[in-house]
Structure formats: C-alpha cells, structure tokens
Design goal:
With 890 residues, the chain is α/β, with parallel strands linked by helices. It folds into five domains: 168 residues, Rossmann fold, CATH 3.40.50; 93 residues; 173 residues, P-loop containing nucleotide triphosphate hydrolases (Rossmann fold, 3-Layer(aba) Sandwich); 205 residues; 190 residues, no CATH class. The protein contains 38 helices and 22 strands. The strands form seven sheets. It has a six-stranded parallel sheet with strand order 3-2-4-5-1-6. It has a six-stranded parallel sheet with strand order 15-8-16-17-7-20, with helices on both faces. The longest helix is centred in the first third of the chain and has 21 residues.
Length: 890
C-alpha cells in the first residue's frame, strides 16, 4: 500500500490544518531535537525560552529520529565502545603490515591506519543499509578490499570481550526490529509508554530525505503492521523552493501521487517564495534582513559569539567548519569544553603522538616538543616546561635533524659535553652591565642561538627533554601488545607525576581523569592492541571524530541547516543568523562519502543486488543542494535574519553565495562590509596627551660601555638594536641559512686569532663542525669550499677589525665582529655606519619605527646592506631574507 502524505504551509499553523484532528494523537518521529522541542517544549531547564505548539496537549508525543537511532544502535555508538573498536581496527592493519614482505604494501597500510575513522563510518553505514560483505563492488580498489577484509574480521564475535558492543550485536539489533514484539518494546521505551500499549500508527514529520538507516527502520515498522503517515511543509505555488520534498516523496518511491496528498493550502502571499521563483514579490517582506561580509576569522567568530550571546539561532550548511573555527576562539560557547581546549589535552595528544608508524619507533618532532613545554604539564623536580619555552626555541637548531628517541638522547649527550667542556667564564668583576657585555664579547659562539642560552638554563631544558623521552618510553614500552585499559593506566600514571599546583591546572587534571575513566571501562579489559593503536584511537576521541550527527543535550554554537525549520518557533523572539553562506557551502555540491567509499562503488553495488537502501544513500548525497535551497528559503521567511560569509579563510578567497545575490537584488537589505581598522574622531579628540616612553634616540644616548658591535647594530638600524639588546640580552642567529653563513666567518675569525700558533684552517674547520652536528652535509661542503678557495673576503685581514676592545678590565679581539656580521660587504657598511655615530649626521635622531634601509641615501636596499643578514629576520616586519634580495635590491 502506498504511503500517505500530509502537508502544511506554515509550521505555526499546523494545529489549524483541517486534517490535524485526524493525526494529532498519533505519536510523531521528527527530523531533529529542535523540531521536537518546537512542537512540545519539554527540554529540561529550557521550558521558559519558548512555548511549544502543543505544550498543553497531553496526548501529543514526539521523539527525534536521532534518539530512535541511538536506542537501536545501543552501545555501538558510545565513546568507550568506539575507542575499543578503533583500537581493534588499527591493530588489524598493523598485523597485516607485519605479515607483508612488500615494502610498498607496508607503506600503503601505514597510510591506511590514519583512516581508521573512515573505515569505521563506512562499515557502520553499510551495515545500516543491510549490505553484506560479498555485495560491495570493489572495482579492484585495494582500499575497498582492505575495508571488506576488516569488515569480515569485525563480524567475528570471538574478538570481543562480552561487555563490548561488537559488530555482530549491531547487525543482530538491526535485524531484530523486524519482529513485532521487539519493535513495540523499542517504541514504548523511547516514548516512555507503558509496555502494554500497542502502537499502530506513527507520523513521520519533516524528514527532507531518508538515509539508509531511516528507510530501513521505516520499512521494518511497516512489516510489523505499523501504518506510517508522512508530514512535511509544502506549497505548490513555489515548486523551486520545495523541490526537495517533491523529489523525496515522489510517486516512484512508494508514496501516493501528489493529487492524493492531503494538503493544507493558503492564499496568503509569500514574498520569499516569489524571490526563489525568480518573480518580483507582490507584497513587501516583513522584518529585517542583514547581510554581512566578514574579512577575517576573528571577526567571524566575534559575530557568531555576539549572535549566541543575544539568543539568536546560528545555522550553516558548513556547520562542521564553522564550529571548528568558532571553537578555537570561543570554547565557552560549547558547554563542557573538550579536553583539547585545555593545555593538558594538548599534552596528552602530543605524548600519544610520539609513536611514528613509518619509523616503527618513538619519535619526537620540534612541534610536539614545543607543545609539551608550553602546556605547562611537562615538569620534573624544580623545572617546569612553560618557564623554558623561550630557551628551548633558541636551542632547537642544535636538534634540527633529530627524529627518533635515540637521536635525541645522543644529541643531548653532545650538548651536555659542549656545555661542560667548551665554555668558560669570560667575565670579570661584579658590575651587572659589564658582565652582560663580557658574556657576549667573550663567547665566540654567542652569535648562534643554541649557544647563547646561559648554562644553567640549558641544564633545565636538557632535564625536561630527558624526562619527556622517559615518559614516551613508559607509554610505549617495547610497543608490545597490551590491554586497552593498560594504556589508559599508563596515561594516568604520567599525569600523576606532573606536579602542577594552581587551581586551573587541577581542574584540567580532573577533567582529563573523567575522560580517561570514561574510556577505561570494563569493556576494554580483554581487548588487546599495541600502545600505538590505543594512542591513535585516543587521538580520534580528542579530535572529536566520535561526535557525529546531532547529540542530545550538547551545545553547539552553529547548528546544521536542517534545524532552521524549527527556528520560526524556537527563535521567534531573537532572530536567526545563517553563516558561512559562501559559494562553497550554499547551495553546496554533492555530499561526501566516508573513506574509502565513493559514488561509483555504491552505484555498481546497487546494480549488483538492487539494494534500495543503497539507492537512498546515493540520493541523499546527490540532493544536498536541493535540501539547502529549501532551508535557505525557510530561513528567509523568519522575521529577523542575518546572513553572513567570510571573504577569505586560511588564505583562500571565497565569494558570496548566489542566494545572497538573489536576495539583494529582490528586496531591501542592510549590508555591512568587512570591518576596517580605524580610529573615530571622538577617540582622538578625547585622548589624553602623554609623553611617549620612547620617542627618539640618537648616538649621544648610547652608553660608553656598550660594545662596538652593539653600536654598529644601532648605526645600521635602530630596530636591530631594539630587538637585539632591549628586547633580548643579545642578538643571535637562529635561521639555518644564517647560521651556515656565520659558521664560515667564525672559522676565519678563530683561524686569524690563532695565526701565531700555526693552526691550519682545516683543523679549525673540523673542531668547529663538531659543535654543529645538525648542519647538513651539503652546507658543510659549501663552507669547506669557501674556506679553501682563493677568496679575498676570508684570506686578507680587514684592517678595521684587527684591534682589541676593553670592557670591564678585559680585552676582547675584534675578530668577533666577523661572526656578528658574517657578510663581508655588510660588515664594511656597518663599520661605516659606526664611524658616522660621532658625526653631525650620526647625531640626528632616529625613530624606532623605521628599518635601517630607510636611512640609506638612495632610499633602497643595497646588496651590501646589513639588513640582508640580520638575526631578527623572524621578528622584524621590515626584515629582508637573503633569498628575497632580488625583489628589493635596486
């Protein structure tokens, strides 16, 4: 028998429809929780926000399709269960790697481990669609063949603990709902009815298309004798706006023909419908339409936060992307913050991420190391990582090529040896300023960032890195098989060893414990996997990969577009905001399929077995844009609506949606462009006049004790002096190219200083290279060629730097200037600038807001200008990298 269809034109008028008395007492299954609460607001703690249409109708009952799906799937979708299944899938792939002798196959499988989430989602949806492992068309695609192999293994009930909700149980649950007694039991439970009640009819309300799971469940209800009535909005005057409904509930899909639909009609003009039909509205639209273009992600996030704080409903066709952006700026909008929003979450993530599948070993990247230090959770004894972040950043060039834990351990020993045997006290006396300059002038390696850190600070960094490596070894002991619960126990032990006392950190610790406890259930006591597999599963949890679909009671700043249908009631007072309304998201293209599935595989699998549920899956993916069109139309019918988009996201330009152009051309709107930074006249007029801390500076302000290189820095560029001696204790090179260039000058300087000792430059070269183990072989070869070639720059003494400078009772050779200004031409220019400091020209005031090349007579950078080899290239906004010289030199 064909399925009955009832339609209404306005949700607000549903109770006034002539057919309402016929269906009002029939329980409903609705598209979303928002729709459920719009019909009857029984949401705990939110009853006063709005009045549901049928709040006082005692016989009215509704549940969302999401609640129903959760009841059927049982424990399969719970976080702890997914954690266990993800770990199992990862272990299965790792076993295949161990069994393979083909290096290319091993590398391919290693890549597949990163797609465990896609494999899980594909299997879940295929099971919901009733597809069997032998019914999936593979096209010879090895990724799909891997999916089928894992799918078959997951169907083996012997791999699960008795408390784990495995794939065989999910299949059994999905098949059992076709039994009348079990179907009645399920429905009575979700509606809260007595077990004796028999449900004979159900209203399916507002499903704009049917997923494989939904269609399978509806078909099962019909098989058990339950009559289904389909209810949704429709107005035949506007077929373009309502096309998704006509297509979903067409006669070719088991529904009665349109002429037999029981439809409410209205003569009330709908200007929004006219707009979408391309007609000029016959009446003016009531209310306000605001269109806003955001120029940056921070402006966008501020706009969403404002909407949320003022009670507006925020919706988007790209809700996942929108929430990821907003969450980074306003985690408070998401209720209980995810663990990754706290420093402790990033700490757990990064120590979990230290197992590298490609290397099959514990590895540590510079990024992970910095994240662990900055989190504040890497502590050992009196040392805390967050106190050593700046020191670590300076030291990192020494570890530039380290990857495996053994590399780090060897390099740490080398650093300790250098710090112990290659540095000596170069200061004399107790004067603080003199001590500072003596440390800089007397240390031949001070111009290299890794050797510019005080010895006692280096010790702290070494202790903390060693402790982090110890933690990694504890977590991945031999990477042998363990219970999942053992991995969680190890993490808890690591957190216990982190001595962090402030209240905020203790709150973080408690949140982390709750999450780890949630995952460490009895379900996981028997499931065995490698620590790396458990780590990957935990990362998926921390990323939020488990959070798919609509989850009851969870706060989202931006909701999916299909929730907007209920906004006419739930957000009637406050208005709505449609965001990320750009050409990529609205109307959008085809829906995506989870890895490794695609449209061709599903189409051919459908042709193979004519599984109508697969056809539903293809239909939902193909018609996303039609659904978004209707929801945009529905949103425009709201009295007060804001529509926005971001013109540039992560460097990619985005254009406004064509729907925005359609609306702007049809009705009056308020348009706000990207916010421009500016100062209002009132702020200037009322500003308090004060003396600036630093207005001008000239050579007369330089202290006599300041060493020659500092004055040379000031002479060529006051910003170079500012960054090097005011912001920091002394400048140093950190860039890899800069260091390689400066090493050459260091070797020449040492060789020149030891000429009377008959030390050959090759010997100096070898000793210096031992201090820089991370330097590349190609760079070493280039340095050697420079030194042994016939180059005037390095073989003739520069008469300007053969003297000595006195500081605090000690003399220091001027050969040190070679390392400080490694480029020969730049050094000559710096000496010229230094010589001018006592002249009238040099005494002219220089502002700290202009780069050095602003003072060159020709007004542009010369090839010899010291800006090209400045240690502040990473910080100064006027910096000139050597590789960029061709763009700026005249």
């Amino acid at each position: 028998m064909a399925r009955k269809v009832y339609t209404y034109t306005e949700l607000n008028n549903l109770g006034k429809c002539s057919f309402w008395s016929e269906i009002k007492n029939i329980p409903q299954i609705v598209a979303s929780n928002d729709m459920r609460w719009a019909l009857k607001n029984d949401r705990p703690g939110h009853e006063d926000e709005w009045d549901g249409l049928f709040d006082y109708a005692l016989d009215f009952h509704a549940i969302s399709m999401n609640e129903l799906q959760g009841a059927i799937e049982g424990g399969w979708a719970e976080d702890a269960n997914k954690f266990a299944i993800f770990s199992l899938i990862s272990k299965m792939i790792r076993d295949l790697i161990d069994d393979s002798d083909d290096i290319y196959e091993q590398k391919w499988l290693l890549g597949c481990i990163k797609n465990v989430g896609g494999i899980f989602n594909s299997i879940s949806r295929l099971e919901a669609a009733g597809v069997k492992t032998n019914e999936l068309y593979t096209f010879g695609d090895q990724n799909v063949e891997l999916l089928i192999e894992i799918w078959k293994k997951l169907l083996d009930s012997s791999i699960y603990d008795e408390n784990v909700f495995g794939l065989p149980q999910l299949r059994e649950r999905l098949e059992s709902i076709e039994k009348p007694e079990l179907m009645q039991e399920l429905l009575n439970n979700v509606y809260g009815f007595s077990p004796q009640r028999k449900i004979s009819k159900l209203v399916i309300h507002g499903l704009f298309y049917l997923t494989p799971f939904q269609e399978r469940f509806l078909h099962a209800m019909e098989k058990t004798g339950i009559e289904l009535i389909f209810l949704f909005p429709y107005d035949s005057r506007y077929p373009f706006a309502y096309e998704i409904w006509k297509k979903t509930y067409g006669e070719d899909k088991k529904y009665v023909s349109m002429d037999k639909w029981v439809s409410a009609v209205t003569n009330k003009e709908d200007p929004c419908g006219d707009i979408f039909e391309g007609r000029k509205p016959k009446v003016n639209r009531e209310g306000r339409v605001t269109i806003r273009e955001y120029g940056s992600l921070i402006d966008f996030s501020n706009g969403i936060a404002w909407s949320a704080d003022h009670g507006e409903g925020v919706y988007s066709a790209g809700s996942n992307e929108a929430n990821e952006i907003v969450k980074a700026f306003y985690p408070r909008l998401y209720g209980e913050r995810k663990l990754m929003a706290f420093p402790i979450g990033k700490f757990i993530w990064n120590i979990n991420d230290m197992w590298d599948e490609n290397e099959n070993a514990i590895c540590l990247s510079e990024y992970s190391l910095l994240e662990c230090f900055s989190s504040g959770w890497l502590t050992h004894g009196e040392y805390s990582g967050k106190d050593y972040v700046n020191d670590l950043t300076k030291i990192m060039p020494f570890f530039r090529d380290c990857n495996r834990i053994s590399d780090w351990e060897t390099r740490l020993e080398e650093l300790e040896d250098i710090e112990k045997n290659c540095f000596w006290n170069t200061s004399k006396g107790s004067d603080k300023d003199s001590y500072r300059w003596q440390q800089m002038m007397g240390n031949p390696l001070a111009d290299f960032s890794q050797f510019s850190v005080p010895v006692e600070r280096v010790k702290g960094v070494i202790v903390l890195i060693k402790h982090l490596l110890f933690i990694a070894r504890e977590l991945f002991v031999d990477n042998s098989e363990i219970n999942i619960s053992e991995h969680i126990r190890r993490l808890n032990k690591i957190l216990d060893g982190c001595v962090v006392t402030d209240d905020v950190s203790e709150l973080e610790r408690e949140i982390a414990r709750k999450i780890l406890y949630k995952l460490n259930t009895e379900n996981n006591t028997r499931i065995k996997c490698f620590p790396a597999d458990a780590a990957r599963a935990l990362e998926l949890y921390l990323e939020g990969t488990y959070d798919e679909g609509e989850i009851k009671g969870r706060n989202w700043a931006v909701m999916p577009m299909y929730h907007v249908d209920a906004a006419h009631i739930t957000k009637k007072k406050n208005g709505i905001h449609i965001c990320l309304c750009d050409n990529d998201s609205m109307p959008g293209g085809k829906g995506a399929y989870p890895w490794p599935l695609n449209e061709n595989i599903l189409k051919n699998s459908y042709e193979k077995k004519k599984n109508e549920l697969l056809k539903c899956w293809l239909y939902t993916a193909e018609n996303t844009s039609l659904a978004n069109r209707y929801f945009m139309y529905s949103a425009l019918k709201h009295r007060n609506i804001s529509i926005s988009w971001v013109s540039e996201i992560r460097g990619k330009k985005r254009a406004e949606s064509p729907y925005i152009g359609l609306i702007r051309s049809s009705i009056d709107v308020k348009y706000f462009g990207p916010r421009k930074k500016g100062v209002k006249w009132g702020q200037v007029e009322n500003a308090e006049v004060v003396d600036a801390k630093i207005t001008e500076h000239c050579s007369d302000d330089l202290n006599a004790e300041i060493p020659k290189e500092a004055k040379m820095d000031y002479g060529v560029c006051p910003l170079r002096y500012l960054y090097g001696y005011i912001v920091d204790d002394a400048p140093s090179f950190q860039d890899e190219f800069m260091q390689s260039f400066s090493i050459t000058s260091l070797i020449v300087a040492i060789s020149n200083a030891m000429k009377d000792k008959n030390v050959k430059i090759e010997e100096v070269y070898q000793n210096v290279m031992d201090l820089f183990p991370a330097i590349k072989k190609s760079a070493k070869r280039q340095i050697y060629d420079y030194l042994t070639g016939d180059r005037k720059d390095y073989t003739e003494e520069d008469e300007a730097i053969i003297g000595r400078d006195l500081c605090g009772g000690l003399y220091y050779t001027e050969q040190r200037l070679r390392t400080h200004f490694p480029d020969y031409s730049g050094r000559k220019e710096a000496l010229k600038a230094y010589a001018k400091l006592d002249s009238e020209e040099g005494k002219k005031s220089m502002k700290f807001t202009k780069p050095g090349f602003a003072y060159t007579p020709e007004g542009k950078v010369k090839k010899s200008h010291p800006c090209a080899f400045c240690p502040n290239v990473d910080n100064c906004k006027y910096s000139v990298f050597p590789r960029d010289r061709e763009k700026v030199y005249g």
